[in-house]
Amino acid sequence: MSTLSQVPEAIPLPRAPPFESPQVDTATDMTRLAPEYGTRLLPTLIDAIATTTPNRVYASIPRDDADMSRGFKDITYADFALAIDALSWWLDETLGKADGTFPTFAYFGPRDLGYAAVVVAAAKVGRKVLLASHLASPDAHLFLLDSLSCTAVIYASEMAALAQSLQAKFPGAKYISTTSLGDFLTEPTLSARSDRYGYSKPYSIALSDPVMVVHTSGTTGLPKPVIWTNDMLCSVDRLHTLPGSVATQMAGQSVYCALPVFHTSGMTASLLTPVFLSTIIILGPAGIRPDKQTVLDVLRNAPVSAASFPPSLLEELIADPVCRKALKRLKKIVYGGAPVSAWANRIIASEFNGTVSSALGSTEGGLWLTGSSPDPADQGYFLIHPFMAPDFQHTDVDLYELVIKRTPQSEAYTNFFRCIDSTPPHLAAHFGFDNKESINEFKTKDLFSPHPSKPGLWKYRCRKDDLVLLSGEVKMYAGAIEEAISAHPAIGAVLVGGQYRSRPFLLVEPATPITTNEQKVEFVENIWPAVEAENGKHHASARLQKELVVILGSEKEVTRTPKGTVDRKATLSAFESEIDELYKSWSKL
């Protein structure tokens, strides 16, 4: 392990290009390949589908959230367009006509199609909607409302407690309690009008109009609001023209989405891929966070052919023999947000015959242009399309940060630079986007390692934010160490820390709860060979030792992000006293 004053020698990088693709020099050339793709706006495209093929199925939802054995109800594009129009009229009624400045309103509702409908309705009425995560902290919600100058907060009755807490601290907005906006799909009469709400803006005029605001997780500080424009939403449509793209092969698939619909990944799955790539979205019960039983009930009662999961839920499903058998019947399974554990990758490689893959993406960049190797042994490795303009910059030993260069291709097919352009001036400097015109690269802060022998394959390791600086200027990337140790089947979650301490500590949540001190001692002995194997790769000062280990009992758990990964900042805060006591005891040895 290196010190900050010493740059470690880089592992030689493979040179072969990951994708075979024709040379395309400019964004104009790409548009010429298919003039409509990438310029089809959501409101006009949905209206066009509803007019030409009104019975085409957009989505399928439970007839009864409490009893999925009653089957699922199809939502056609005619239904969807009618709901969007009714909701658009309702927004004008409730908030007044927009003034041309695209004011922001927030929406908090259950996990249903109301989120997809309100995004398109916002585009129609000339507003932008903040999709704030249910799982964000109160401070994060307040920061988002304030930084975006939210004029209104619309909330379903299920979210009343959250709305009331926000109103007490952010009273300047108008707070509107209503039914779930998803109810407009089955009851368009909730609005006084449900006739066609016209939208005639062409792409050339509307491309920079802000439509929705999503945000980063905020695990290392306050979340970053990212304003998505019409043009950013159209990035999924451009996949039709991407050389080597397999995205369009999902057309016609009925995809169960277990991702949060208020996150970028969930919005992509529930709105963008159905409309632009012709998938059919299937959602489970709106009022609950999906678990193993929910997934089984959906798979048994809905016509599911593919599915998308958070990695933590996919791991739970793979670990259960009944769930694993049900998953094997699907044609395609996609997970995103974080890597799965090494043990899960082994099962995927040996039992799923290439049907499981990971989709990389980010709030700022949207869906990344990645592929996978046909060799099951390469499970967990990615191919990065050259149109993404990837530049892997060496950071530490075998870790490289993925940096996106500004090129006509990366501007056309990703949202990194559109994200920079759409950030308002009062937030640009705060997020490092000052002098926006001179920014020619986007640092993702995601660290990867190259495949040891196969050119062009990269494995996601950790975030650059996972850097832990020990006293004596020894640095360690905790995420990479955690990834290696968490492969042990007895470990449920792990966190490595020790900022400005002389030695790092290890916090472990067992896969199976343990309570007695004797069990904890036995547990440490069980996992220690895996810890020692990782210790051998690092500087002596960065090696873990048994005296600096916290084993969690059943009374307290690690805090997780909405993606299901360990929330480093929140967990360190929750266990601050235990960690301090650990170091006090260690110093007396």
UniProtKB/TrEMBL annotation:
Q: Which PROSITE patterns match?
A: AMP_BINDING
What InterPro entries does UniProt report for this protein, alphabetically?
Adenylate-forming_Reductase, AMP-binding_CS, AMP-dep_synth/lig_dom, ANL_N_sf
Q: In which domain of life is the source organism classified?
A: Eukaryota
**Keyword Phosphoprotein set for record:** yes
Q: Which UniProt keywords apply?
A: Phosphopantetheine, Phosphoprotein
Query: Can you give the residue ranges of the AMP-dependent synthetase/ligase domain?
Result: 70-376
Spell out the residue ranges making up region: Disordered: 1-24
Q: Keyword Phosphoprotein on this protein?
A: yes
The molecule here is called: AMP-dependent synthetase/ligase domain-containing protein
Originating species: Aureobasidium uvarum
